[in-house]
Amino acid sequence: AMLAGEDLAPVFTTRVERTVRMVRVGEALIEAALDRGELSADGRRAAVCELELELKAGEPGALFDLARQLSRNVPLRLSLISKAERGYGLAAGVDTPAPRRQAATLDPRATVGEALQALGQAGLTHLCAGLEALRERPEPDAVHQARVATRRLRALLKIFKPLTQDEAAQRLDAELDWLAAEFDAARDLD
After folding, report:
1. Tens digit of pLDDT for each residue in 1-17?
2. What would the pLDDT profile of 80-92 be if each residue is shown by its tens digit?
3. What angle (nearest 5°) sits at the alpha carbon of residue 84, between those of residues 78 and 85?
C-alpha cells in the first residue's frame, strides 16, 4: 500500500570498509571502528572517513582521554550526523543536514538535577549540530543557529546556577561566553 505498486529502490548507497580495534586506556576497554568509503545518490558522491569510539568497559572519561590523545595527531572533529542522515541529505541534494534541535524529554518525576542533565544534553546536541553545519557551510543562518544554541545553554546555566557552581560548569560558562562573543562579531559582519 505504501509503495502504490512501485518497486522498492535504494535512496542512496553506502560502501565502506570498516577496521575495528580494541584499545585499552587505563582500566577501560574501548572499541575503535574506522569506516572509510563513500556514499552515493543520483550521481552525487560524498567521502566517508569516520572514527567511532565505543566504551565497552570502564569509566566514560577514558573515551575523552583517547579522543584528546588521537586529536593531537589526527585532525578529528565531533559529528552527530549519521551516515544515514548524510545519505538522505545527499539524495535530497543537501550537503549537510540543517541543525536539528530536539526538545528534551522530561519525566514528570525527574529531579532538578535530572532535568538539568536532559536539557543540557539537548542544548549541547543542538550546539554541536550547529557548529558542524557552520563548518560545512559558513552562511548567516548557520551562524544564527549556533548563536541560538549558545545563548540557550548560557541561559540554562544561569537558571540552574545553584546546581552549576562546580569547576566544570564554570569552565563551560567561560567557553560559552567566549563563543557568544565570537558569534556576535560574526553577526555584526552581516
Report:
1. 566 777 788 888 899 99
2. 778 888 888 888 8
3. 65
Kindly report the three-state secondary structure assignment for every residue of 93-136. CCCCCCCCCCCCCCCCCCCHHHHHHHHHHHHHHHHHHHHHHHHH
Q: With beta carbons less than 8 A apart as the criterion, state whether 177 and 151 touch.
A: no
Q: Which residue in this structure is represented by grid cell 575503535?
A: 32
Which residues make Cβ contacts (< 8 Å) with residue 62, sequence separation at least 6? 25, 26, 27, 28, 30, 55
Q: Please tell me whether the overall predicted TM-score, pTM, comes out greater than 0.85 for this model.
A: no
CB 67 within 8 A of CB 36: no
Q: What is the largest CA-CA distance in the chain?
A: 61
What are the angstrom distances between the C-alpha of 8 and each of 3, 4, 12, 56?
7, 10, 12, 37
**Is 74 buried (19+), middle (13-18) or exposed (0-12) by CB count in 10 A?**
exposed
CA distance linking residue 12 with residue 70, whole number of Å:
31
Edge-first strand order for the sheet with 44-57 is 13-25, 28-41, 44-57
Q: Which of 62-71, 96-105, 175-184 has the highest mean pLDDT?
A: 62-71
